[in-house]
Design a protein that fits this description.
Distance between the termini: 33 Å
Shape: globular
Low-confidence stretches: none
Oligomer: single chain
Order of helices and strands: EHEHEHEHH
Number of strands: 4
Number of helices: 5
Largest sheet: 4 strands, parallel
Mean pLDDT: 92
Structural class: alpha/beta
Length: 125
């Protein structure tokens, strides 16, 4: 089973979680951790670290850390934490269709999620 943690600047990730749950219903395995403007890097790192540390204790065997953009503080925190443990997959540049797929397809790998998500964007354009 997989836990999915959305990380991002401001309320974007919490809005994505709300939109996901509006479509799919409550998703206990989906968490959003927003970086607030007034929050320090260390405080944000601690918040995300806590969620990462708890995923195995909560009974999950895999973790997707989905960041809003590559190179931003949330994405850098996700990358740092993803390198520290196995079974953590970090993807930057999430969108709603990607999150819906991650929530509904527990068998999809991080690589396939990214590939499928990129195809979804191309089909829309």
């Amino acid at each position: 089973m997989r836990k999915i943690v959305l990380v991002g600047h401001g309320d974007g990730c919490t809005g994505m979680k709300k939109s996901t749950e509006m479509i799919l219903g409550k998703q206990d395995h989906l968490v959003a951790i927003a970086l607030k403007e007034s929050e320090s890097l260390n405080d944000y790192l601690k918040k995300v670290q806590t969620s990462v540390d708890e995923y195995k204790k909560e009974g999950y065997d895999e973790l997707f850390l989905l960041a809003d953009i590559k190179g931003g503080t949330p994405g850098n925190v996700a990358t740092l934490l993803g390198k520290q443990q196995e079974h953590i997959h970090v993807i930057a540049g999430y969108h709603l269709a990607m999150i819906l797929t991650a929530c509904t397809n527990n068998q999809i790998s991080g690589h396939d999620l990214l590939k499928e998500s990129n195809q979804m964007i191309q089909e829309i354009i």
